[in-house]
Amino acid sequence: MIRPLTRDDADRCEAIIRGLPDWFGLEEGIVEARGYLESHDGFVVEEDGEVLGFLTYTSELPESAEITWMAVAAGVHRRGIGRALTDALVSRAAADGRELLLVKTLASSQPSPEYAATRAFYRSVGFVPLAVLPDLWGPANPCLLMVRPLG
Fold it and tell me: By CB count within 10 A, which of 12, 49, 73, 128 is most buried?
């Protein structure tokens, strides 16, 4: 079941992040994600009372929305949870008249099998690379901006 994220979900969503150290290994990133969980809109996938994944987003401009954080619990990868979360946001953003959906992830110039899988996932749900922003997160973490048209 997909439902809107509530502030009461923050602990369970943070536990998902902490269970994925190959993706979320920096404490400052985990703290930032927690802040988004408590202050931004999003969605969760819940099954039998257990949160299996979540997505937070922001909409700073009327033309676009951006996925800010998304994670799926380690034991349930490749079950369509990330796709369902993305589809929920696509529907919301399109209904709000937005034209683009954005996401930032680690660029391929920084080798990581986990983030190679992340980029492949985003491609599979319609995102294409737009630009590499090498200084956004610092030289050790070059940012890839990906975009998905909603029209």
Answer: 73
Helix axes 10-18, 27-39, angle to 10 degrees: 160
Q: Which two tokens stand for residue 120?
A: 């492949």
* Residues facing 105 on adjacent strands: 144
CATH number at residue 116: 3.40.630.30
The pLDDT profile of the chain, 151 residues, written as one tens digit per residue, is 999 999 999 999 999 999 998 888 777 888 889 999 999 999 999 999 999 999 999 999 999 999 999 999 999 988 999 999 999 999 999 999 999 999 999 999 888 888 899 999 999 999 999 999 999 988 888 999 999 999 7
Range of the domain at 32: 2-149
